[in-house]
Write a structure and sequence with these properties.
With about 350 residues, the protein is mostly helical. About 35% of the residues lie in helices and about 0% in strands.
């Protein structure tokens, strides 16, 4: 509940009282960063004109992203749970853990191509990228901090004071500029240089026979949800995971209150999926083989199970697949790994 209250406050804050405050007017010391939409990508969802990434805004966002002072224990930075080598997931952790080892209930999501997404988190609780970080910052099981306390801490550091001065016209160290800077950093995290992309853009790469077979299977069995070049149609669906008694995470219903949304979660992107294990909203599945075994044999029925997975007589169909087909799909999924992105120093802590 706490999440929604604080998000509500910020929505008001953003719409009613800040339209001209944090806006940046380019100056020599702070050039605008080029943002190029990859030619095989859709249009952006994020309105860049409302918060154009600049050199200093990005630098500030990165510093904040890796700064433990955004958490009450001084340790749990954004980068603590979102680790670049694993496409910014908290890879060994089934559910992420925050300050004092407090356990959350969900698996950290990868951070890439966020400027193309409409809603954020597994249930869509955050409707704008600028608002998303309020959740981890204020959540007791994540960073357990308040903006006023963060501002006090970072105001003491001259480097921060200078970066805020250069990055934002009003020069203020306030929550709005903190969020804008974090967005500027995250907007630039585009992952679009996989083997799959190079093939789509005719840049000379070719699938192996196994990958090509996997791609065909993927298109017929998976792409209705994991759609397009982002590998998600950004809808909320129930893919038949057994209900977890420990957390009983109700998914999208938490946001909409609708019974028809119970146990639905956002269709995740599959980019860099080889590295973002463990899988599903609560990290219950360890490997891609486990994921495909779930789709072929592990589904359980419920009121909201996606109709794609049912036969006309209402029995469960799942996604029938043999072992060879699964291996082909996995080979294809591995062509979605983007080494350039994973090793891109612009996003690295050091
Ligand atoms: C304690 C671990 C933890 C910390 C710290 C943390 N996150 Fe996350 N992050 C998560 C988890 C878990 C999710 C999925 C949340 C959910 O679905 O409710 C998530 C989701 C997100 C998303 C949504 C991604 C998407 O595709 O929808 C963004 C963006 C994000 N985090 C950015 C940040 C930023 C910025 C910070 C620092 C201010 C941060 N996170 C700190 C664990 C963490
Ligand atoms: C009807 C829609 C739908 C179809 C079809 C579908 N998926 Fe999914 N997939 C989802 C949803 C929804 C989730 C997230 C479920 C959750 O965490 O509760 C998901 C999760 C995943 C994950 C875990 C991702 C992560 O970040 O943890 C993988 C991998 C995956 N699907 C692969 C596939 C493959 C491969 C196929 C085809 C064989 C497929 N999916 C077919 C909807 C679908």
């Amino acid at each position: 509940m706490k999440y929604f209250v604080s998000i509500g406050i910020f929505i008001c804050f953003f719409t009613s009282c800040s339209s001209d405050k944090g806006e940046y007017i380019p100056i020599d010391q702070n050039p605008k960063l080029e943002f190029e939409i990859p030619s095989n990508f859709p249009d952006l969802d994020y309105d860049l004109s409302s918060n154009p990434p600049t050199e200093k805004g990005f630098e500030l966002g990165k510093k904040l992203f890796y700064d433990g002072r955004l958490a009450s224990d001084g340790v749990v930075s954004c980068g603590f749970c979102h680790i670049q080598d694993f496409a910014f997931t908290h890879h060994t952790h089934i559910v992420s853990h925050g300050v004092d080892g407090a356990l959350g209930t969900r698996n950290a999501q990868p951070l890439h191509n966020l400027a193309f997404m409409k809603e954020f988190t597994w249930d869509g609780a955050a409707m704008h990228l600028d608002l998303q970080p309020i959740i981890p910052i204020t959540a007791e099981v994540e960073m357990n901090e308040t903006f006023s306390s963060i501002i006090k801490k970072i105001e003491e550091e001259p480097e921060y004071v200078q970066l805020f001065e250069l990055a934002f016209e009003n020069k203020e160290i306030n929550s709005e500029n903190i969020l804008r800077a974090l967005s500027q950093f995250m907007i630039m995290m585009v992952s679009a240089n996989t083997k799959y992309d190079k093939i789509e853009r005719n840049e000379g790469a070719v699938f192996t026979e196994q990958e090509a077979a996997g791609f065909e299977l993927f298109k017929s069995k998976c792409a209705s949800c994991h759609a397009g070049t982002l590998f998600t149609d950004q809808s909320y669906r129930n893919n038949g995971l057994p209900i977890d008694a420990q957390y009983n995470d109700i998914g999208r219903k938490r946001v909409t209150g609708l019974e028809s949304d119970i146990y639905k979660f956002k269709v995740p992107t599959l980019r860099n999926i080889e590295l973002t294990f463990p899988y599903m909203h609560d990290g219950r599945l360890k490997t891609l083989q486990d994921v495909l075994d779930h789709y072929s044999d592990g589904m359980v029925d419920s009121e909201t199970l996606d109709p794609t997975f049912k036969n006309s007589d209402n029995t469960i169909k799942g996604i029938p697949m043999g072992q060879e087909e699964k291996e082909q799909i996995i080979a294809f999924l591995k062509t979605l790994t983007d080494d350039d992105f994973l090793n891109d120093n612009r996003f690295s802590e050091f």
